[in-house]
Write a structure and sequence with these properties.
Blueprint lengths: L1 H20 L4 H11 L5 E3 H8 L3 H13 L3 E6 L2 E9 L1 H21 L6 H18 L14
Antiparallel strand pairs: 1-3, 2-3
Length: 148
């Protein structure tokens, strides 16, 4: 467990420093990434919370921060007034496009580039198994938006 914690802390420290240069925190980066790769660039707030592991109040605060910088906007669900969507804005897409190349370069330098193709395949398979067991909502697809 110590080795896993140390590896995670080392990667997180290097990635957080790069994100900080672009005015984005780790949580905000994850949310922008999740929104950008979702159909229509949007997710229900509750789905975004479940995927990111944030509480309802945590996702509200994070989306508030992103909204203040015009990186995300909220959109009401047309069929359920209680539901809101978080939607990545053009500014959010631009910020992500600016941050992502350096982020991927660091991942290559400090993670994937240190492993052989076989090792990387084994690590990724293991990580998927652990993720799916411990965070089954982490990759949930957008729910049927018609019913919100």
């Amino acid at each position: 467990m110590g080795l896993l914690t140390e590896a995670h802390a080392g990667l997180t420290c290097r990635l957080a420093a790069q994100l900080h240069e672009h005015g984005v925190g780790l949580v905000e980066f994850e949310l922008l990434l999740r929104l950008a790769r979702s159909p229509g660039g949007e997710l229900r707030m509750s789905d975004l919370a479940a995927q990111s592991g944030l509480s309802t109040s945590g996702i509200t605060r994070a989306v508030d921060r992103l909204q203040r910088e015009d990186l995300v906007q909220r959109r009401a669900c047309p069929s359920d007034r209680r539901s809101l969507f978080a939607v990545i804005t053009e500014t959010g897409q631009d910020r992500l496009a600016t941050v992502l190349p350096g982020h991927l370069e660091l991942i290559e330098r400090w993670f994937t580039g240190l492993l052989t193709e076989t090792q990387l395949g084994q690590v990724l398979t293991g990580l998927r198994l652990v993720r799916d067991a411990t965070r089954p909502d982490a990759t949930a697809l957008n729910r049927d938006q018609a019913g919100c």
